[in-house]
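Consider the following assembly input.
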Amino acid sequence: MTIITVTTGGTVPVRTIEFLTDPVLRGYYWPGVLAGLAVAALAAPLSVLVVLRRLAFIGQGVSHAAFGGVGVALALGAVGMTAAAVEPGRTGIILAFCVLSAYAIAWLGERSRVARPDTAIGIVLVASMAIGFVLHRYAAERARAGGQPAPPGLEDVLFGGVLGVGWFDAGVAGAVAVGVLVTLAWVRRDLVFWAFEPTAAEAFGVAVARVRNLVMILLAVAIVVGMQLAGVVLVTAMLVLPGAIALRLSARLWGVLAWAWASAILGVGAGLVLSFELDQQPGPMIVLAMTVMFGAASVAGGRLCGRKAIGTRH
Amino acid sequence: MSEAAPAVRYRGVSYTYPEGAGDGSRSPAPAVERITLDVRAGERLGILGPNGGGKSTLLKLTLGLLKPDAGEVEVCGRSALSARRAGLVGYVPQRAEAGFDFPLSVRQVVEQGVSRGASAWRRLPAGARAQVDAAMELVGIAELAERPIGSLSGGQRQRAMIARAVAGEPRVLLLDEPTVGVDVEGQQRFGVLLERLASRGLTVVVVTHDLRTVAGGCDRVACLRRTLHAHVHPRGLTPEVLAEVFAHDVEAAFGPVHVEAHLEADCPGPHTHTHDHHHSDHGGDGARAHD
């Protein structure tokens, strides 16, 4: 099947092996692959937490906030703030926007009780998307009027792209993965207690507000690092599906973590191969690969353990 | 009974949730009001009351998670918060809060009770691990230690939660609705277990709306519906007392009832009760669910 698309610059797609071994092409594709594996490694344990603590929807809210962050960074770059147009600054702006959105959700839904918690997520989610679209268009118009290069296309921002990931991004993803994993290991006892029983954890002396804030920040970090590859819309899949798969396959903490890592890395790997072979954006391919794995795990998990699926039972 | 200092002492304790907090209700009515009660060291006290009667609020006040608007709560002679921070209070939460689909073994759950401040990079210290083993032995779940918490029966889970609460060797044990979802046999074992804990000098406070829990496992019962209405020996829970305490539950189910019972303090002593709310309007009380 030969599909010609805009994203690969009108070239005829070649097989994965060629992408990764060709002396010219490999420089374009390896950073995306390595960044993807780093994101998988850091997203896997977080996804277990997301599923167990039922944070999937808030994760969705924070990831869509990243789109607002992209818009803000592009607009600031367009009006001449160079720090917002180059790499560390852009990522910082997106991360800040995500964290602020997480706080906005918490403030609207819990502290001020202006809205119910899930309503607060819904509002912040669509508002960020709207801001992102408006500012993206503004930046694109300004770039065209000024004869500047166009900002990254909406499709890449929303659904990801391997070619947008450079060596700098891959390095950042690797460093962030190490940082997130060390942090998770460091606070694991409080984290697990909080996820298991928030009220009891508080009564036993766990600083639950601090733990929750930390989890929100780690989620925002994972989203910002993962969004270039998987896109804003689909990055939360990496923060839900590995955990959901793993919880069908094991009832042990270490078993669940091992399955989560395995399925995240396998899912990202398979998704990237599919995206190369079928000339699709990597985001949807990663999501589809993981969804198929979830189906398989549901069937296998039922046979394996002879019990009702863990993670869906109340 | 020895007249040692009370393990828990409530002195005119009142608490009103800030407007709209907790459950979305806008009622400014107090959740608990003028609670005065001594819990003697080594006694098993049941606090019996309907849903929304302030039981969980009283528990949170006893844990120092809420601060009373008026009055004070003392645990082992110190403030509720500092007693809990010092590990003097063990807590068994209501069953519904726990995620029993969680991939944890029974041992990992019990370890939560002793892992405060433990290093993240090492195993739990040997002393803490010994406490965990002893607690599981005490409640009779030692042989289940490596099983996933989700594979246990309701009664076994409850004993695991009690083991977690007593692993840190507290002086006071608070239990919130401990027998919800526990079968008859489990309830009997629960009564025996409470007796064993109390015989080791632990003060036990059970908060429940389940009569069988207090009848089977408590020395004394305090009836709570916003204020304390009576506290008696379990056998003193006459139909009149119960009708009074659960009047709102009865009315919600069957329509208005008229309870003419006049409650007196059934156990004379230094404990004073507030009876002046008997015939006042408790409108909205039943709708407030702070539990």
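Chain A is about 75% helix and 0% strand. Ask yourself how this observation constrains the way the partners meet.
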